[in-house]
Amino acid sequence: MMSNNSLVSEFIILGLSTHPELETILFIVFLIIYTVALIGNLIIFMLSIIDSGLNTPMYFFLGFLSFLDICCTSATVPKMLTGYVTKSKVISYYGCVAQLFFFTWPMGVELMLLTVMAYDRYIAIRNPLRYSTIINRTACINVAIVITILGSLNSMTHTYCTFRLPYCDDNKINHFFCEIMPLLKLACADTYINEIVVFTADFILGICCFCLTCISYVFIINTILKIRSAEGKRKAFSTCASHITIVSMYYGAVIFTYIRPRSSLSLEKDKIVSALYAVITPTMNPIIYSLRNKEVKEAFKRTLNRLVQQRVQNTT
Question: What are phi and psi of 157, to 5 degrees?
Answer without folding.
Answer: -65, -50
